[in-house]
Amino acid sequence: MALVLGVVLSVPVAAQDAALKDEVKERLGRVEQGLDDWDVPGAKRELAEVEALIPSDVEPLKYYQGRVAFEEGRYDDAVALLEGANIEDKPGSYLRLAKDTRDIVKKHQRAESEHFIFLHPPGKEAVLVPYALETLEAIHRAMAEDLGWTPPGGKIRVEVVNNARELSRVSTLTEKQIRTTGTIAICKFNKLMVTSPKAVAQGYDWQDTLAHEYIHLVVSQMSRNTVPIWLHEGLAKFLESRWRGKAGLAMTPSTQALLGKRVKADTLIPFEKMHPSIALLPTAEDAATAFAEVFYAIDYVYQSRGAGGLRAVVHELKTGQTDRKAVEAAMGMSFPLFEKAWLAHIKKQPFPSELVPRDDRVVLKEDAKGKVKDDGEKKGREISFGDFTEVAEVPARKFAHLGELLRERNRVKAAAEEYAKAHKLVGDKYESVSNKYALTLLELKRLDEAEAVLRGSLRVHPGSPATNVHLGRILLHRKDYAKSKTAYLEALASDPFDPEIHVALTRIHGALGETALASRAKAATVVLTGLEAAEVEKLAQQFLREEGELSEMNVGGAAPQPAAAPAPDAGR
After folding, report:
1. Which of 99, 117, 292, 494 is the most buried (most CB within 10 A)?
2. Which residues contact 348 (CB under 8 A, 6 or more apart)?
């Protein structure tokens, strides 16, 4: 800052008046502070005052004009201005960030809603647009209600990147940090940056993630960037489910089990070690533990003081209080007492009796070591012994392996018997065992039993796309359109590029008289399969009419891709 402001001394003689120099220096300081405070409109107003005081070719002016242009998403302008300010083009510099971001998003397609601009790579990401904008507008309304804040200064930019490498280039995190902690999205530079679900082996909760990152933006702006990371992440994690309902729905049984293990071992992450970012913690397990800790800290504040308590904490921080003093003021107790009460609150949670395999880890496709299945295979009929490597109980793993071997040889009844033995030993602990068992039961037309297995699995692994798809098939076959719609939308929230989901929703929305939603689902199917709209309509009407279709589905291969179709996306 001092070096940049020092260049003001080189302005023409007319500007050398001491009072003018002081004013320029003070105003540029306010521009810097505004940007640091996530107040881009305020920084821009101050910059306009400076522009009237000094020549347009002064380097500090160009530097801050470039910074503002970058924050507003005007990347060509940002590059030109930062080059004009003689900013060095090196990793981590604003010039390099502007160049890399410009190059990554220059061919992106653009969609807008009332409060958001959604930029995505051309191709299958077009499927995300209506669902993403609905999610964002819903969390926008919820945060206006809960935290009393709506972002000023125009629409919020949301930029979708293809993979971890691109996320690293448009942010200040290294690719190694992103891979180590499973970071999939970032809120910085007055925008949200999210990785396409196509980059992740089993998909991820991308709609909750959009909401999560938007809450970071709201908290940063309303507090003038004074909220420490542990409170930041706690607020975002606790409130991220508000786009779809109540706060506090984001905690999964697997993360609860991990937290329970760390509580028992007395290896929780201290609040101060979460700074400057949970993404910088040594391991993904540490990051998951920290997220769970801060979730319950905010949960405790919310249960004690409601949304007003959350607003009070942020307000106190904005006025300059420390995090400890802010919590004390909002809660009416000393911070040591708060920590004691928070820990007691954690220990009261219904931790699973045993450690559940974590299902919230983000595994990139390039790191999946062969776990990503060929898109051409029929879903449900994939024969994969590797699915059971996570099963720690050796007898159960052996039964599951034998079941898979028998299923491969079309000895379905015998396979079901072996899967039943495995499932009896491990219950709902493993998605792989539950889903393979359920698919075998579907082949035997034992639908009620299959449904019970799938619902049991969802209690332990909520949001699982495969489990929700299999459950959705049963419900749709029974013409229970409302419940099948819920199951398929749950699957879409993690795996939006599965064509079956959109074919099913085309039929479901049509049956429910939701014409616009049926058209949306049909358009998504066209994008993902290359079929013509009329072919999709026919496919949707025939979809799951026969029981034999319940256990194997290959919607993506229903028709050959047209010659003019774009090449598959990287990682698909």
Report:
1. 292
2. none
* Coil, helix or strand at residue 490: helix
pTM of the model: 0.89
| Residue reference for tokens 């939603």 | 517
Give the residue from 141, 160, 203, 212 showing the smallest Cα distance to 490. 203
Residues 6+ apart with CB under 8 A from 333: 341
Looking at 54-133, which runs of residues are DSSP E strands? 109-112, 116-120
Spatial contact of 251 and 295, defined as CB atoms under 8 Å apart: yes
**Can you list the residues of the chain whose pLDDT is less than 50?**
2-4, 7-9, 13-15, 376-377, 381, 557-572
- DSSP conformation class of 495: -
What phi and psi, each to the nearest 5 degrees, are found at residue 188? Answer: -165, 160
Residue with tokens 């749709």: 476
- Determine the 3-state secondary structure of 195 from DSSP: strand
The pLDDT of residue 450 is 97
Chain centroid offset of residue 300 CA: 24
Q: Which two tokens stand for residue 370?
A: 């062969």
Report the SS3 class of residue 187. strand
Sheet strand arrangement including 156-161: 109-112, 116-120, 156-161, 191-195, 185-188
Instruction: Give, as one character, the DSSP assignment of residue 364.
Output: B
